[in-house]
């Protein structure tokens, strides 16, 4: 009833990190319209667009948590994050089934090209804009230039564009993370492996597979990553990737600015790359009990095997398809294989984006919250921590800026309680 809606709006929590937001909600038609405006502003990427994008993101987040389906804008009375612009868009959608402003954006050639270019691994709005300025219309134009920037992500992102743009299914993600768990357990018994990102929030598809690794003993996780990559390579699962060293320093809290320049979200040791997922991952055999067989235990790679390959994240089988081409990368001794297709032989795997993140146990629960997301949940929780509590929240911890001491947590619940927030289940963090 209108009275109940009014009451609900009056008590509506101010911060997204205080609200539950499930994947399935009642106002999808409205949020998808607002999200086009948000995306458009994000792609334009000027200072002014940044605050517009933020306003659209906050409005869409409110709509996701509303316990009723909006049928007219009057029902939005009292909700502070729904501004006049958003109300106009919502009325349009409610009255005419679509918003003319949204339709214009969707039709625009600039938006289509920006969406296409930024869907390539390694391409952000500024490179996409530069490509448009060069007059490039499609990915063939970019291919012809052979990755002008020399960035491995773009080169491989272009070469495997089609694979990487097929969403990763939940079953594939689970199958892969079980193999990661098996191999990591052989290298470091007791290892903790968690499938994070959208899949942890209950999504059935994602653009990549994010896996967080830790160990109950702080420090025991050191040295795991190179061995793990070698073991996965030995199993024929690795196509290309790069390791990032741990760069966390507890004495420097304001080092974030160094991160964004390199497209990094935190200082954890990690591997960002592309893996080869056998097609059998997504088409599990159905057994008599009709259970998907996604976990076929296999003997894991031995220690001696690992030593031989510990520094190589490439596996030999790719030579059948890709021509090795010596190429020195900036300031690195690494010889890279360029993704030059020399054979169109059919293959039995799909290229998939994978992030493997290593966190020491003392930072693990903050890393878990940060890598579970959603992106908006993180942004909002960080702003809330700063504005309401005067604390700095990152994926490494929650810090008191004066005492410079982290507030340690032994569980996700404890992270929320330090933040003076009600605990919110991962499935309810889709804000
Ligand atoms: N993350 C973040 N800020 C970003 C990017 C990521 O806080 N700019 C955090 C929250 C994300 C998590 O890292 O949930 C994983 O990043 P992804 O980009 O993989 O995001 P999702 O897993 O949520 O989405 P998708 O399903 O498309 O992979
Ligand atoms: Mg993800």
From TrEMBL:
One of its GO terms (cellular component) is nucleus. One of its GO terms (molecular function) is DNA binding. The keyword Ribonucleoprotein does not apply. Residues 293-303 have a biased composition (Polar residues). Mg(2+) binds at residues 208, 210, 355. Its cofactor is Mg(2+). Residues 286-305 are annotated as: Disordered. Belongs to the DNA polymerase type-X family. This is BRCT domain-containing protein. The lineage of its organism: Eukaryota, Metazoa, Spiralia, Lophotrochozoa, Mollusca. The chain holds residues 115 to 545 of 545 of the full protein.
């Amino acid at each position: 009833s209108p009275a109940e809606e009014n009451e609900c709006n009056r008590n509506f929590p101010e911060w997204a990190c205080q609200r539950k937001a499930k994947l399935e909600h009642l106002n999808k038609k409205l949020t998808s319209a607002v999200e086009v405006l948000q995306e458009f502003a994000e792609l334009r990427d000027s200072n002014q667009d940044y605050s517009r994008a933020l306003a659209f993101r906050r409005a869409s987040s409110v709509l996701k948590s509303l316990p009723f389906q909006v049928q007219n804008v009057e029902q939005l009375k009292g909700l502070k994050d729904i501004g006049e612009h958003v109300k106009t868009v919502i009325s349009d959608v409610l009255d005419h089934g679509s918003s003319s402003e949204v339709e214009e954006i969707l039709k625009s050639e600039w938006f289509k090209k920006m969406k296409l270019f930024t869907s390539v691994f390694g391409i952000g709005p500024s490179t996409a804009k530069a490509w448009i300025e060069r007059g490039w219309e499609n990915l063939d134009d970019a291919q012809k230039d052979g990755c002008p920037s020399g960035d491995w992500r773009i080169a491989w992102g272009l070469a495997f564009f089609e694979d990487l743009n097929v969403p990763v299914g939940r079953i594939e993600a689970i199958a892969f993370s079980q193999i990661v768990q098996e191999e990591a357990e052989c290298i470091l018994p007791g290892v903790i492996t968690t499938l994070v990102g959208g899949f942890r929030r209950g999504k059935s598809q994602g653009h990549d597979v994010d896996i967080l690794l830790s160990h109950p003993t702080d420090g025991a996780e050191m040295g795991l990553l190179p061995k793990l990559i070698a073991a996965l390579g030995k199993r024929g699962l690795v196509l290309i990737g790069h390791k990032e060293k741990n760069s966390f320093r507890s004495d420097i809290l304001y080092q974030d600015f160094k991160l964004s320049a390199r497209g990094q979200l935190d200082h954890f040791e990690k591997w960002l790359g592309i893996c080869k997922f056998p097609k059998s991952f997504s088409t599990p055999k159905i057994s008599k009990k009709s259970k998907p067989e996604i976990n076929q235990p296999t003997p894991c790679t031995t220690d001696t095997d690992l030593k031989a390959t510990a520094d190589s994240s490439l596996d030999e089988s790719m030579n059948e398809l890709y021509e090795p081409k010596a190429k020195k990368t900036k300031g690195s001794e690494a010889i890279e294989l360029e993704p030059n297709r020399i054979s169109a032989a059919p293959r039995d795997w799909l290229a998939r984006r994978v992030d493997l993140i290593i966190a020491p146990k003392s930072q693990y629960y903050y890393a878990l919250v940060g890598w579970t997301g959603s992106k908006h949940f993180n942004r909002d929780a960080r702003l809330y921590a700063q504005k309401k509590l005067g604390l700095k929240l990152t994926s490494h911890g929650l810090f008191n800026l004066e005492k410079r001491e982290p507030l340690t947590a032994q569980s996700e619940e404890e992270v929320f309680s330090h933040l003076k927030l009600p605990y919110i289940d991962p499935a309810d963090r889709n804000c």
